[in-house]
Design a protein that fits this description.
By secondary structure, the protein is α+β, with helices and mostly antiparallel strands. The protein has two domains: 18-78; 84-183, no CATH class. It has helices spanning 3-12, 21-31, 36-43, 47-55, 65-78, 81-94, 130-139, 142-158, and strands at residues 96-108, 111-112, 117-125, 170-183. Strands 1, 2, 3 and 4 form a four-stranded antiparallel beta sheet that branches. The two termini are 25 Å apart.
Length: 184
């Protein structure tokens, strides 16, 4: 995955998805209670293809890369739903804090910083962005997670409340050295 999704997983999940492709396939079959049609729909395969995989006539490891990527995404989506729901509820209640060292730059109306530079920031994530962060975790979407965290940091650090001239400020958030997320 990416650094943000990995940071979210390390803080808000107790274990990883299965490491092997076969283990991931078996996990998805368990989640769908052995229903080959539902697994086929989720993976974009035919029911017969899934039945062959279950019987061992074909090996899941030899599937197309797109299928293996979809398998990983589907298993990640369903992984530890109660643990994730509990963490999300707690984050909504207490709030989230982001600590990171990354390259930040910004562009404002008619002006630009010289260059983006490495900064170490510790800021609270605005409460309205917390559900979106967990949605990105659920979907395994690193780009969306980066966008949401960048927006939160932009609001809290670069666009101080009630400061004129920073409403249109676009913040770049790249080259993440490290990132940690925790409850406030």
């Amino acid at each position: 995955m990416g650094k943000i999704i990995d940071a979210l997983k390390s803080r808000f999940q107790t274990r990883d998805i299965p490491k092997t492709i076969k283990g991931r396939f078996n996990e998805l079959m368990r989640k769908e209670k052995g229903d080959t049609q539902r697994v086929a729909d989720r993976l974009g395969l035919s029911r017969r293809q899934v039945q062959r995989l279950v019987k061992g006539e074909r090996k899941i490891e030899r599937s197309r890369p797109e299928t293996l990527e979809r398998l990983t995404k589907e298993v990640t989506k369903d992984h530890q739903p109660r643990v994730r729901a509990k963490a999300e509820a707690e984050a909504k209640r207490r709030g989230l804090t982001v600590e990171t060292r990354a390259r930040f730059g910004f562009t404002a109306a008619g002006q630009t910083t010289d260059d983006a530079r490495m900064r170490r920031l510790t800021e609270d994530v605005p409460d309205d962005l917390v559900p979106q962060i967990f949605e990105a975790l659920r979907n395994g979407d690193e780009d969306k997670a980066r966008e949401i965290v960048a927006e939160g940091l932009a609001r809290e650090y670069f666009r101080e409340p009630d400061t004129e001239g920073v409403r249109g400020l676009d913040v770049e958030f790249t080259d993440i050295d490290y990132i940690e997320l925790d409850y406030r």
